[in-house]
Amino acid sequence: MSGRFYEDLTVGERITHGRARTVSDADNLLFCGLTENTQPLHLDDEFARRSGFKGRVFNGIYTLGLVVGLTVPDLTEGTIVANLAYQSVQHPAPVYAGDTLSVESEVLEKRPSGSQPGRGVVRLRHTGRNQHGETVIEIERTVLFLMRPEGGPDAS
């Protein structure tokens, strides 16, 4: 298990995730096909250019999923119980085929769960940036984390 337990997280902490991903045109087209999203901004270069972009723009839901996915090995792998909410998702800049996305997470708040012993509620902000350092997505979400098992090998 490489994720962090509730106790391993500190409010104000910033985590730079070690993985990045270069997105391809095929990623965008496949995702649009799988989700039945026929928005021409994602599928039609000329339409996207007439709309003020330099070409087809990546589907924002794909970007959301990829950015959260890039955080999993360092943050939630094996230590998450559930995503409770996505409070905010903003797309300040477009994503294009060939962009390489990386992520930084910040711990905004945390508290023990009032209804589920051995679990804690954590609010996170994930910032996804392209290879030029431009922020392409900001996500705030609330996650239910496992607390470290009592008497386990890493129990404090």
CATH superfamily, called what? Answer: Hotdog Thioesterase
CATH class: Alpha Beta
Q: How many distinct helices?
A: 4
Separation of the first and last Cα atoms:
17 Å
- Ranges with pLDDT <50 over ≥5 residues? none
H/E topology pattern: EHHHHEEEE
Tally of domains: 1
Q: Could you tell me the number of beta strands? A: 5
Shape: elongated
Helix content: 10-25%
The overall pLDDT average reads: 94
Rg calculated over all Cα atoms:
18 Å
**CATH fold type:** Thiol Ester Dehydrase, Chain A
What's the helix and strand layout?
Elements: E1 14-22, H1 25-34, H2 40-43, H3 45-50, H4 60-75, E2 80-90, E3 100-112, E4 119-129, E5 135-146
Antiparallel strand pairs: 1-3, 2-5, 3-4, 4-5
Question: Could you characterize the architecture of this molecule?
Answer:
With 156 residues, this protein is α+β, with helices and mostly antiparallel strands. It has a single domain, classed as Hotdog Thioesterase (Thiol Ester Dehydrase, Chain A, Roll), CATH 3.10.129. Helix content is 23%, strand content 36%. It has helices spanning 25-34, 40-43, 45-50, 60-75, and strands spanning 14-22, 80-90, 100-112, 119-129, 135-146. A 5-stranded antiparallel beta sheet has the order 1-3-4-5-2, covered by helices on one side. The longest helix has 16 residues, at 60-75. It is elongated. It starts with 13 loop residues before the first strand and ends in a 10-residue tail after the last strand.
